[in-house]
Write a structure and sequence with these properties.
Elements lengths: L10 H9 L2 H10 L4 E2 H7 L5 H13 L3 E6 L5 E6 L1 H4 L2 H23 L1
Antiparallel strand pairs: 1-3, 2-3
Amino acid sequence: MPKERKIPECPVEMTLQLIGDKWKVLIIRDLLTGTKRFCELMRSVSGITQKVLTSHLRAMEADGLVNRKVYPQVPPKVEYSLTETGMSLKPILDCMVEWGTEYTQKTQNQKVH
């Protein structure tokens, strides 16, 4: 049984509890484009280990961000997708993309001058 998480009063802290880890944000980024199998996530989230990916997917499933669908076949087939709650994080990631792009451009322009 998952342990109860204390809900913080600060909404920013609540968001960070759910997606404050860099791996979780990258997993969400990759699942925003659609359902993925475990091996596809391993390839697309460069640098993550199998153990860490498994751990984060389980935590995100427990938090209601990710759906896990197991197909009854041999070898086993498991697919991951975002729940409606997980998809609701898209505007946050879109803002991160915009900010990261602007920051990168600004810092590259500063190096040129």
